[in-house]
Amino acid sequence: MSDIVVRIAARGDGVTASGRHVAFAAPGDVVAEDGSVTAGPHRQVPPCRHFPECGGCQLQHVDDEAYAAYLVERVSGALAQHDLTGDVRAPHLSPPRTRRRATLRAMKAGGRVLLGFNAEKSNRIIDLAECHILRPELFALLDPLRRLLGLLLAPKRTAEIHLTLADQGVDLLLKGVKADGFEAAQGLVDFAGEQGLARLSLDEGVGPEVRWEPQPATATLSGRPVPLPIAAFLQATEDGERALVDSVLEAVGTPATSADLFAGIGTFALALPGRVLAAEAGRGAVLALKRAAPSIAAQHRDLYRRPLMADELNGLDAVVLDPPRSGAEAQVEQLAASTVPRIAYVSCNPATFARDAAVLVSGGYRLDWVRPVGQFRWSTHVELAAAFSR
Ligand SMILES: C[S@@+](CC[C@H](N)C(=O)[O-])C[C@H]1O[C@@H](n2cnc3c(N)ncnc32)[C@H](O)[C@@H]1O
Prior knowledge:
Blueprint: E1 3-8, E2 14-16, E3 21-22, E4 30-31, E5 37-38, H1 64-80, E6 92-93, E7 101-109, E8 112-116, H2 136-139, H3 142-152, E9 158-166, E10 169-175, H4 181-195, E11 199-203, E12 208-212, E13 218-221, E14 224-227, H5 238-252, E15 257-261, E16 275-280, H6 283-292, E17 297-300, H7 310-313, E18 318-321, H8 329-336, E19 342-347, H9 350-362, E20 366-374, E21 383-389
Parallel strand pairs: 6-20, 10-11, 15-16, 15-18, 16-17, 18-19
Antiparallel strand pairs: 1-2, 1-4, 2-3, 4-5, 7-8, 7-9, 9-10, 11-12, 13-14, 19-21, 20-21
Helix pairs in contact: 1-9, 3-4, 8-9
The structure holds S-adenosylmethionine (SAM).
S-adenosylmethionine binds at residues 233, 235, 262-264, 267-268, 280-282, 285, 302-304, 322-324, 348.
């Protein structure tokens, strides 16, 4: 008997009605008893020649409707694990070629430089001849970088290439690359000038050292240029950032006083009306935010060890939090014990989000809605913004 693929599992496999996992199957595909698969209406031709070897994308074989349904199911599934239900809205999907931040790997092998993402579940580097997720400004640097690394990389050595699009151009950090001596140092400066880079830094294992930055690099957030620390967090796409900021503003309303926790360089703090307290563990990020917006009370604080306590939170009209993948266990316990009327929770991990949501709900909060955001298009990475109130 044939079996129909009904959903996509967390890691990207198709799952049939009878529970069979089938690699690269899309919802609606029909799986015969002998394992052969007939493509259904949600199958699409993967746009990139490197799919599925390249680890940058896992879901190019499904159409946008199936990708959106996958994002919704990942969030509802995580909530169901904690007996929670909620209004999971239609996701925002970032268009192709909008990713403005990426980490690639490079290696010199057989006299040439391979440069790209790791292969799926492997350390092998996929030498990218095309990429449908990176912004064209980032992709355009790949060939020039191959030539530069051909001069700087020792055979068989690997390097990490961090690319971020700043206001002034590409901010490039090379990790694991040495540029000793006059010729190499001058070569780096010439490369940065020719490519119109915003900044070029090298990390030889003892922290980043800037080699080129003709003007201070900035990222404009909510219309305000913020000094951009090297390798600072920035939302992966500009439209994803807008979708998250709009969701946060809808969740919190117009607070007179609020806190932005895990604030980074201020993606949400700078968008919030009224008086804002921001807390963040990265010293460079806190200093950048203070410089861009002196009126924001920015605190350098480790919120895992020293969360804002309930009595510090009480009296605020709203709290925004956007923790790393491990979530914000200690901080949500304090929030659950607080009287803050509105919370916007931004997350890059549905599992830890659902765990933390359960703590808030058991503290008396209502989960009003969740909006998934697919800013890592075609990957299994899910982001979301959620609204809680009491
Ligand atoms: C997902 S990013 C969000 C940043 C910011 N909200 C944004 O959207 O640009 C998470 C932030 O949490 C910070 N962080 C990580 N661990 C932390 C901790 N223990 N206490 C406070 N902040 C932490 C990171 O430095 C990072 O800036």
